[in-house]
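All the exercises in this workshop are built on plain-text protein records. A record pairs a protein's sequence with a compact description of its fold. The structure tokens are whole numbers drawn from a learned vocabulary of backbone shapes. Once this layout is familiar, the rest of the handout is easier to follow. An example says more than a description, so a record of this kind follows.
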Amino acid sequence: MRVLVVEDNGLLRHHLSVQMREMGHQVDAAEDAKEADY
């Protein structure tokens, strides 16, 4: 499954991304909605 993590806290964004990858997901991460709207 492909997951988009949008979180302004860099440390939390990193940890969420790592956990999702460890669960086998493809992860894209963005700092805010503007960055996520690609």
Summary: Residues 2-36 form one domain. The two ends are 18 Å apart (CA to CA).
